[in-house]
Amino acid sequence: MSEGNGQEEMGSIRFPAEILSVVAPDLSLKRHLDLGLRPCLRKFHEFKNLTLNVKSGLSRYDGDVDGESVTDSPVLGSSVIKSGNTTVICGITGGIVEIANVSTTTTSDDHDDSMEYTSIYPVVEISRGKLNGAPTDEEMILSQQLYETLLHSKILPKKSLIIDNIALKTNDDTNNNNNNRKRYAFVLYANIQVFSREGPLFDYCYGSLVKSLQTVKLPFIHFTDEEFIINDNRKNGGNVKPEIICDSEAYNQLKINEENINWSLTFGLVNNDDGKETIILCDLEGHAEETCCKSLINVIIDKNLKMRYLNIVGGDENVIIDENIVLKTVQLAKNRVNNILN
Amino acid sequence: MNVQDRRRLLGPANASPIVFSDVKEKKSKKIQAKPDDEISKMFINTGLVKNCDGSAYIEVGNTIIQVSIYGPRPIRGSFIDKAILSTECRFLPYLSQPNDSISRLTSSTSLITNYNGKLNLSNIEQKISSYIESCFLSCIYLENYPKSSIDIFIKILSVDTNLLNLVNDVVHCCSLAMVDAQIESKDLITSGNLRYLKSNNHIIMDPKCKDKDKDITNEVVEEGKLDLVVSFMNSRNDEIVGFWCEGNDTLEDDVLEKLIERCNDMSKEIRKNINFYLIESLE
Q1: Please, which residues have CB within 8 angstroms of residue A140's CB and are 6 or more apart in sequence?
Q2: Exoribonuclease phosphorolytic domain spans which residues (chain A) (predicted)?
């Protein structure tokens, strides 16, 4: 028992900045904003460093340019993006699917219909110490968003994936009627690994997906005849007789609409309590910013600096989103995209 | 759409896999420059991943490994007097795993179309996980962390070596991550990896060559070849915490003794390097 006046003075508790941002994110954010800084110590309109690497060594054809040979990797295109602490690794693999036998000669002019474009099937995996199991909400939402954004960006035309130059290993080349022959197309899958999750993930994942897509090379295809059996121990340990096999070395570069290549940017909007001014924050980072910025603007800008997509979420009596804010955000996005893509 | 897994976008169910014809042998061959009694150079780094308690990254040749440790973190449920250790090793889904053909022979897995659909750990991943777990179980002071769990996540980003050589590198990477996570341990674990060729009584230290699938599965079986990984706590009287031996020949006592000794030498050599790195990183 301590004898005393019973009124011990309570000392103030002092937290380091990183702990305060978890305990009281709003307070941490406000204090930083008052100083004209952000909790990550960047300026309001300052973006994070971004490093793009499309020669990551993951792809089958990565060594081909250096005079080395192809590897036995099934990856057709890949990229690695590093921004701040976050690293995103994207690898694109493929499959072959039988398609309906429609006439290849299109009579009318191609009017840009989304039916003529396709997308990649992405699966995002964010490493955050979770044991094997169902994907998290964030992973599922990101994957779906990536699929849809790429589809509507009209980057990947369906006809680029159609296999029309199949080398036939048969004797009769005389009648070349395609009528009763099956037609095939490639289908692309992406696996996106995120390490050290921080900041606007959609932007990085979408960026890595688009950059990987630009590197995709599709292998040459030929049918196999009856005698041709390949010994594929790596895959299933036995002799398999696939209908179609791909050439180990020859490839075609995937044709994509380079004009439609675009980049996504997400901005956070906060209000500094002192005034009515709404502050735009680029590349949200850290716990304080991500939890306190409920108002977000997502902009997608293409190579020619035209806006392709705009999504505004939030806004209330404190965070007023007016025309000026939107225009300023789009301008910031254009400047940034100009630096990245051109 | 794939109906088996509605949580992932796996694409059309009727897609068939891309099967490549064999890469021409003469081109795929790479020259091995390393002498047999030398240890490969490695690049190590710690603390790269920020949202975990400890992480390490290691690059040896074209093999890249990343380890994140989460813990000690509290667990729900009834009280336990010491920490639970769990380990999960995963390759990037599209990497071909060493000795893959053996594991596939025993399972009924057919050709994979979409690598994203692989959900469970493969046999190789499970084997590596359990080896690492058993090594670190005897090393960490688990009783110092009641009612908590320590989770080790190993991610193989690229692999260009045989299985036991990969395990050797994984052990070092985990040890470094363990230091980065500041988990109380008896010692740092390092290991040695050898290949013993019985015919000419030759020992290859740190063998980097890839095993050809054909050698293991059927036709050509090389004569007397043994691969060995032995993990030690070198500062605690060279206690052995892990032992993994694979091969197609018998192992005599005197040879085994000699091999363990050589592994220990290699382990000590690597320990020196890791010690040097850790001291440097403190400054």
Answers
A1: B7, B8
A2: 77-219
